[in-house]
Design goal:
Elements (H helix, E strand, L loop, with lengths): L3 E4 L16 E2 L14 H12 L9 H10 L1 H11 L6 E3 L9 E3 L5 H18 L3 E4 L2 E8 L6 E10 L2 E8 L19 H5 L17 H8 L20
Parallel strand pairs: 1-5
Antiparallel strand pairs: 2-4, 3-4, 6-7, 7-8
Helix pairs in contact: 1-2
Length: 238
């Protein structure tokens, strides 16, 4: 019954997610699973091992990893049943002790998911439950001075080479933002947290400039693990 406004600064949806090729990692919750059977708990143990984080420490990963792994099979079910994506093929990738990476029999997982979700979104646009603002960049979070609550977002749209600003107010604001590695400006988040990596090329699209991170930090929001940036072998050469 809700009404949603989606703000997308590109002329297309999905960002880097559309390029994801490997698949979705998922394991069922089963604390009593045999040694030869996968479980969310074993998925979590693999993730801790790969992260290099001490599972007994107060690191944020210790709170986040169990959430990721224990909800992973529900996420897979949602993608299959609600979105309708074929994720019938399963394989074992690096860092996993079991085959738990689900992907389509044909095509890439990311593009298949984004295409299917886009179709659903556009069906809600027709019923006016969703307003889709393409070519519109989120510029700043609107914050109530007294309560500190986020009450909306200031956006800048462009059409026919004309830019227009608008404030969108809402009871709930969800940031579904991407990376920041393709920002080479003076306010680059990569330059701030990992200046040693600025010289590398990036597999991020040109749109991945950390807009969401920047406006969150300007509004007083906290960040974690900003220095943990993946360097992929395909980005060694520009």
């Amino acid at each position: 019954g809700g009404k949603v406004t989606i703000v997308e600064k590109q002329a297309f949806m999905g960002g880097n997610s559309a390029y994801a090729s490997s698949g979705i990692n998922a394991a069922k919750n089963s604390s009593a699973s045999p040694d030869d059977e996968d479980s969310a708990e074993k998925f979590a143990l693999d993730t801790f091992k790969s992260s290099g984080v001490d599972s007994e420490s107060s690191h944020p990963a210790n709170d986040l990893i169990p959430v990721l792994t224990s909800n992973s099979f529900d996420a897979l079910r949602w993608a299959r049943e609600r979105v309708g994506v074929d994720l019938s093929k399963i394989g074992q990738l690096g860092g996993h002790s079991f085959a738990r990476t689900f992907r389509p029999a044909t095509g890439m997982a990311g593009s298949e998911l984004i295409f299917a979700i886009s179709k659903i979104i556009k069906s809600f646009v027709k019923t006016k439950q969703v307003e889709l603002k393409m070519n519109t960049a989120a510029k700043d979070l609107l914050v109530d001075e007294e309560s500190g609550k986020v009450i909306g977002v200031k956006v800048e749209g462009s059409s026919s080479n004309e830019k227009r600003e608008e404030s969108i107010y809402s009871n709930n604001v969800i940031l579904a933002t991407g990376g920041y590695a393709n920002d080479r400006t003076n306010s680059s988040i990569l330059q701030r947290f990992r200046p040693d990596l600025v010289k590398f090329a990036t597999t991020n699209g040109k749109f991945a400039t950390g807009d969401g991170h920047k406006m969150t930090m300007r509004a007083g929001g906290n960040t974690v693990d900003m220095e943990n940036v993946q360097v992929h072998p395909t980005a060694f050469i520009d």
